[in-house]
Amino acid sequence: MPEVSVLEFIGVVQRGEVVSFPTDTVPALASLPEAASRIFTVKQRSPDKPLILMGARVEDFKPYVQGSEKDWALWEAMMTRYWPGQVTLVLPASGKVPPAMTPGDPQTLGLRIPDLTIAQEILAQTGPLATTSANLSGEPPLETLADIGAAFPSVFTLSHPDVPPHAKLGNGQPSTVAKWTPTGWVILRQGNVVLSEASSDE
């Protein structure tokens, strides 16, 4: 497991490598959106399972989604209420989203801002990253850097005092996922944050 400093970590991301960093839910495997095919290879993930775009700021996501001003007002209401946090919002994807990120459904894209300082600091410097949980496909999410290093020896991880190798990172639960549809929000997965489809009217 190549461990690198935060500065080195940013450089590794920018050259298209797969990395892992902690979030508020479970540790992530991540790459630049255009290098997302590497995540599918490393994780042995089926192409019908899309990746999530994580970022540090709402405005970072705007080039990647498309919708009317009215749609944006509804989306931003949810973003303001639940971000940073453990809610992924699935919105209509723009043409800027690389096909490698969502090969099974290029029409939509999941977005999230994690509620963890180190993750936000990384994402603020790299820009939005394609992400998924750090585990081989079909297996439980890995929760420590030591376990991630054992499973993914080629993946770069952080050498940082806030990220001890054997400490559990995050709460161990995946995010709640809500998808926008013409009739409002549909809940695809419940996590620690419990949403109802009535949230579209709030």
From TrEMBL:
The keyword Nucleotide-binding applies. It catalyses: L-threonine + hydrogencarbonate + ATP = L-threonylcarbamoyladenylate + diphosphate + H2O. It holds the Pfam family Sua5_yciO_yrdC. Residues 3-193 form the YrdC-like domain. Keywords: ATP-binding, Cytoplasm, Nucleotide-binding, Nucleotidyltransferase, Transferase, tRNA processing. InterPro entries: DHBP_synth_RibB-like_a/b_dom, Sua5-like_dom, TC-AMP_synthase_SUA5. This is L-threonylcarbamoyladenylate synthase.
